[in-house]
Amino acid sequence: MELESTTITRGTVVDEVTKLKNDGYRFVTMSVVDLDEDSVDILYHFDKDLDVVNLRMAVPKKEPVPSISGVYFAAFLIENESKDHFGLEFDGLVLDFGGTLYLEEEVQRTPFCKYGVIRKDAEAAPEGAA
What we know:
This protein is α/β, with parallel strands linked by helices. About 15% of the residues lie in helices and about 25% in strands. It is globular and about 35 Å long.
């Protein structure tokens, strides 16, 4: 089975998500997949009466992604989780845990990012602290 998805961009994500909400779709979750050292795929999953819609966007890891938490408040959880696990940044996140939703402040590496993102303040940390 192949995942059917509509490709979107950082510039259109909030508008596309708003259209789905206005059409009665519920936000299910968001998935993040490493593509390479510099970029990830973000997939947004929606459902209405067992009809699943997926939006896909490839983004550079270092560029902030517009948050959809202003449209679907519950998205703040998965966006914060993606921030913790993949080092992504979200613009307009309604509740931003600053990378500490699951991780303690002293954790410097993103655990699920196979290419290893290190937080900027980790470069100045003493050896063995990361």
